[in-house]
Fold:
Amino acid sequence: MLGEDSKKQEDGLLQAREIRRLHLNADLVTLSACDTGAGRLRGEEGIASLERSFLFAGARSVLATLWTASDAYTRSLVEHFYRHLAAGEDEGAALREAKLDLIKEFRSEAVPYYWAGFYLVGDASGPIPSLGR
Structure:
């Protein structure tokens, strides 16, 4: 439940430490909010981020962002990304094609700052079985 629950002392916020304790069987987690791949450096552990927490929880791959993204470009990118996934492309190819689609759609207004921060981490080399043809 994502909501306050005073009986369980739950604040309604899903935090990285709580995500790590989940038991996910997910091919892909999409984090389209800003800075979802950014985090603090934790010594030898590396970067502590939401994206990493979902990998620890069992996600095969995660689509995340390294910096603030534009809402309009994010919406278009994610729509194109899922269309390519539904056509049976692997995640890496689907993200690449979605970025190329943005360039075609927005032409000279497709400034990379607004969408290039999206990246995949994990195993993005195969199609998602439940989305494929």
